[in-house]
Amino acid sequence: MKKPVLFSTLLLACLGLLRSSLALPAAAATPPVHYQTVARLTNDERTLLVYPNPSTGIVHLTINGFENRKVEVSVLNVIGTVMYRETLTELTDRATKTLDLSKLANGLYYVKLEADNTSQLCKLIIR
Questions:
Q1: What is the pLDDT of residue 122?
Q2: Whole-number pLDDT of residue 15
Q3: Are the C-beta atoms of residues 54 and 98 closer than 8 Å to each other?
Q4: CB 71 within 8 A of CB 63
Q5: Residue 37: its pLDDT value, please?
């Protein structure tokens, strides 16, 4: 009789369904996770790095592999409305751009990079 109860308890714990009934000490709480979004545009080391993500509104973009090219950076909301747009020229091999999006409402946005007939979207969360 004890084996089925123990098995059920372990199964629920593994699935995360038993978590609400277990009191975990504050020290055992999971620290917040911060992500960096990296989009690889092609195999020749063209990349877009968006960080921090989630952000409070100050966002850094690192753009690799677009030296001496014209690049358009846009920030779109979830319905596709352009909230920010800027054209970057005279980029170095590893260009960095800081965007102040703190006036945008909290939510999900997309950072869009367009250059050389290439387009890439990266998710961005503003809190």
A1: 93
A2: 45
A3: no
A4: yes
A5: 59
Q: Amino acid identity of 96?
A: T
Tokens of residue 127, six digits? 């809190």
Q: In the prediction, which pLDDT does 6 show?
A: 46
Provide the total of helices (H) and of strands (E) in the chain, helices listed first: 1, 8
Q: For 66-83, what is the HEC assignment? A: CCCCCEEEEEEECCCCEE
Q: Find all residues with CB under 8 Å of 119, minimum gap 6, and list them.
A: 112, 113
Say how far apart CA 57 and CA 93 lie, in whole Å: 25
Say if residues 22 and 10 touch (Cβ distance below 8 Å): no
Q: What span, in angstroms and rounded, lies between the C-alpha atoms of 8 and 16?
A: 12
Q: Flag residues of the chain having pLDDT under 70.
A: 1-45
Q: How far apart are CA 71 and CA 51, in angstroms?
A: 19
* CATH T-level fold of 30-126: Immunoglobulin-like (2.60.40)
